[in-house]
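Cross-posted from the bioinformatics board.
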Amino acid sequence: DIQMTQSPSSLSASVGDRVTITCQASQDISNYLNWYQQKPGKAPKLLIYDASNLETGVPSRFSGSGSGTDFTFTISSLQPEDIATYYCQQYDNLRLTFGGGTKVEIK
Amino acid sequence: QVQLVQSGAEVKKPGASVKVSCKTSAYTFTDYYIHWVRQAPGQGLEWMGWINPDSGGTKYAQKFQGRVTMTRDTSISTTYMELSRLTPDDTAVYFCARDTNTWSYDYWGQGTLVTVSS
């Protein structure tokens, strides 16, 4: 299975800061990459699909970019409600893999 | 509205099997794949596999090959995930999730806690 290396595993930032999370695939996955937000005790929520497309209803401060093996997820201006763990997820050859997650906290 | 409702928490002994159900409603059951994802306490998400509710076809993560079986009952719009030869490392919340048909998930079940302990 394709491995996804996500970093950092945790970060602390101030409200209004720009936050960036990266995900690296062990092989070329084109743009087959999604990003999810998970709050404690809840199921994950889809934010970005196909590397850079914003899911309907998701605030525009969330964005994604990248292709091939290197991907980036950005929160342009961190808000208190963005406190959560974020996961990348790849899909290739009918199998899926999640990154290890990034826990985002407020400084 | 679309709902995925999972069966309740389970406690199992090592070596036993567990079968978790995921009952769907408010959409055409056979139109969307269902995936199973688990999350150990304090850990990340782990994809286990998917089932095509129309054909019954499945694909499992290599880690679970030979130990997981996903099935469905179209008459009651329900999918099942059975995991055998349980060990304490299988203690986790197990989620079912609906595939959007583009390999992302739009709806999730509430999760089922499976605890494996002697």
